[in-house]
Amino acid sequence: MGLRAAITALLAVPLMGAAAPAPVARFAWFDYRGEDPVDRTMKAGPAEYRNPVLQGFYPDPSILRVGQDYYLVNSTFTYFPGLPVFHSRDLVNWTQIGNAIDRPNQVDFKQVGLSAGIYAPDLSYRAGTFYLAGTCVACGGNFVMTAKTPAGPWSDPHWNAIDGIDPSMFFDTDGSAWILNNGPPASTPLYSGHRAIWIQRIDPKTLKPFGERTIIVNGGVKPADKPIWIEGPHLFRKHGYYYLIAAEGGTAENHSEVVFRSKSITGPYEPGPVNPILTQRTLDPARPFPITSTGHADFVTTSKGDWWTVFLGTRPYRGDFYNTGRETFMLPVRWRNGWPEVTAPGATIPYVHARPALAQGKAAPVPNSGAFHVRDEFAGAKLAPYWVQIRATDIGWRRLSGGALSIDARPVALGGTGQTAFLGRRLQHGWATAETSVDFTPKREGDRAGIAVVQDTAYFYALTLNGTAIAVEKRSGPKDPADGVVVASAPYAGTSVRLRIVLRGDVCDFFYAGADGRWHMLAKNQDATILSTKTAGGFIGAMIGPFARAGD
Q1: What is the pLDDT of residues 498-523, one digit of tens each?
Q2: Cβ neighbourhood burial of 380 (10 Å; 0-12, 13-18, 19+)
Q3: pTM of the prediction?
Q4: Is 60 a catalytic residue?
Q5: Candidate list 166, 231, 248, 341, residue with the active-site label
Q6: Which of 45, 111, 125, 523 is the most exposed place for a label (fewest CB within 10 A)?
């Protein structure tokens, strides 16, 4: 054997202990379409808009107007990129313009559960600077970020030592800056869920709180009733009063928004005569197309002086089951005798409402409300900003190249605690179809790639190609294996396949199609309630998208 041939043969033999390169899954496109039963009966006319204005997992909205422009941000917990920032000119058509958390070194999400991470962001503005306050639960605590434009780039978080969650900033007319948040009461809590709203000065340059911290609400509207989880505070001024709005009751069916006011910024604050100012908790749960769990509101005024609010709510398909997570709704604010009101007692949240008195803006390039269809061809230089991954420890495993999305399979299960090779978009309807085309050649046992719908790392479905079969894996709780259990499979010898997941409220179906284009049902009427917050717990909604797994 010649020297060159010997070297070639040697290089062809894997070294002892060397890891083989990860197999790569290539996704040519990803198709999402959704239409809920309510979409067929409640359509907005030319002078109307549809609720929710942001469907799917867009909770804890905070809103801000600067000139003629409106900006909105939502919680994302441990999904990355995080804290999506939206822009609108008419409060109806919202376009995502960036993510405040878009660099892996801004926040450390390693080993953090999906319902920990970043809670309840707050947007504010002063003298050419945008401020974003928030909390990173289990990953740093309370922080403030800044930017010169809401599209970013945003600074790294400036951490502070304030206890609790849900900070927000307020700039007073005298130039002073204040920070509010939910924290434990000054003494031992009197009951489970007993919290308080605190206020303190903050330096807008150093972003460090200073001075005395003061409780301005202890417990809630009626302390004798032991109200729980007063949180998400926002402060504003009107007619010589400081108004404080906050969520109360916990972010489930008893959720609400309440209001207080004071002549002094540090109190005392009196509750409004009609509280809550927003809730659905007293309504018949059997009503058609219910909207529930409303609260965590923020107010905005238009340039014409009209008041509007955005708030979170949910749309169950049965009982308290919903897979789409907490969504962003919008309604006008009415003022009665010096107090704001959103829903009168017993009033339902409407799906269709008259538009704000603003010039109609351009339709969003990616729809976010009602029935719609979105197809990603992966032909651009970067991913659309709504694609997210679980945790932010690594982004090198995914890339766009040659008109396709390439994902390196990783040896981390969807149910693991590390960085999984899953890229998701929000499930924005209870009735939806997601489809993709994948090319994948496994290199060893356990390699597989396909499409997954994920509520949490303990609750998901994955429909994958593994070189010899198409399989549906299901994880319906933390006691199941981290990869789930196989609930259906069929022999399949090819390396290219089309995969489809159909969600129909509380059930879901799984299909595949080979080279002949014919669709084959692999599993029907699977339990989709495992994708609900009711089953999984936590605060997030389901995500659906491409996935690749390398064998251990």
Answers
A1: 999 999 999 999 999 999 999 999 99
A2: exposed
A3: 0.95
A4: yes
A5: 231
A6: 45
